[in-house]
Amino acid sequence: MLSQKLLDALNDQLNAEYYSSYLYLAMSAHCEAESFRGMAHWLREQSKEEMEHAMKFYDFILSRGARVQLKELPTPPNHWASPLAVFEATLAHERHITERIHKLLDLAVAEHDHPGQVFLHWFVNEQVEEEAAAQLIVDRMKMVGDSPGGLLILDRELGAR
Ligand code: OFO
Question: What percent of the chain has pLDDT over 90?
Answer without folding.
Answer: 98
